[in-house]
Amino acid sequence: MRKLVFILPILLLTSCGDESITTQPDDSVEISVTVNPERVILDPGESHNFSVFVYGTSNINVTWLVQDIPGGNTEFGTINQDGDYHSPVSEPNADSIKISAVSEADSSVRGNAWVIIIDPSKIYVSESGSDSTGIGSRNNPYRTITHALGLAVSMQTVIVESGVYNASSNELFPLYVPAGVILMGKGADSTFVVGPGGGHNESGSVFSLDGDAITIEALNISTADNNGVGIWLLPGIFVKIRDNHIGPNYIGIAARGNNLPRPMIESNVISGDSIGISAGEMSEPMIRNNQIIDCGNIGVQILDSARPDLGTVDSTDAGGNTIRDCGLGNQWLIRNESPDTIWAVGNTWALPNPLDNDQFIYDDDEDINSGPVLLINQ
Q1: Of 298, 299, 290, 375, which is closest to residue 341 (Cα–Cα)?
Q2: Is the pLDDT of residue 5 over 70?
Q3: Which of 65, 125, 131, 133 has the most C-beta neighbours closer than 10 Å?
C-alpha cells in the first residue's frame, strides 16, 4: 500500500453541454518532492517509515534510493516502495545516510532525508573528535576519554582510536572507569594514554578502577614522569585488565583493597616500570599470561596480607607469566613481604629451571617474617 501523498495544484477544465469534466496538471507549476521526516537518528538494525509528498503532477509514484542506490544495500540499509527503511545491523562508515525519493514524472526531481545511525552500545573517542559538537558516534566522536567516561554507563564500550591522550589534550587524571564499562583502544602499539604521574598512589595514577565488570584492553598506559601508577586497581567482580602495554611508570598496576572479588590481570606486557605489579592490603589479583619484564626494582611486589595468584598448586591453572630482567641482576623477580605462602606455578623465569630462580626471589629465606614463594608444585 502506498503512502499518503499530496498533489498540488490541479487545474480543472470544463466544456459546454453534456461533455464530462477532465483534469490536467497546470504546466506552469513545477514538480517537487518532499520526504518527511527530514532527519532521523536510528540504532543499527532499527527501522523507520518515511512519507513522501509529491506536488505539481498527477503521477505520484517515486523511486526510493539509499545513498543513490535504488532500494539500498546491506552496508547502508534498505528501503522498499512504501518508504520502509531498515538500517544496517552495524554502524556504517558514513557520517549520515541519504534517503532519496525520485519522481517518476521527472527523474531530475527528488526529495532527500538523512539518517544518522548510532550504536548505543558504543562511544567513540578520537583525536579528530570534539567534546562540544561530537555525539560519540564512530563518524562524529568525542575528543577526550574523560568526556566519554563521564557519559558512559554499564553495558557500553568506549572505543579509543589510535593517537595520544594526555593532559595537553584536556584529559583529566586519574581517569575513572564506571562499573560495567569496557574501555578499548585500537592496540597497545597505537593508542597511548599518558598521565602526568607525580605519585605512587591513586592520585598519581592514569586509571582508577573501583567497580564490577570493568575491562581495560588494547591500550598503552604510562606516566609522563615515570613516577606514577599505570592502573590503581580495587577488587571487582569480572574485572579484567588485558592485552595492554603498561609502562614506564613507577608502579605498572597497583592492586589494593579487600581480598574478594579477584580481578584478572592477563596477557599484558608490563615493561619499563620500577615495580611491575604491586599487590597490597588484602588484594588477591589473578595474574595470568603476562610479560613482566625489564622492571627496574621488582617484578611482582607483595605487601601486607595480599595473596596474588601467579599459578596455583593445580598445574592446569598455571600462571603462564614470563617474569625476568627485573631488578639489578634479576633482584627481585618476586618480592614477598607478606607472611603468606605465595604459589607461582607454571611461569617462565630468568633461568630455565624454576628452582634455579629461587636466588631471585625475596621470601622467607631472606626475611623470617615473610612467607615462602613456591615456584613448582611441592
Answers
A1: 375
A2: no
A3: 125
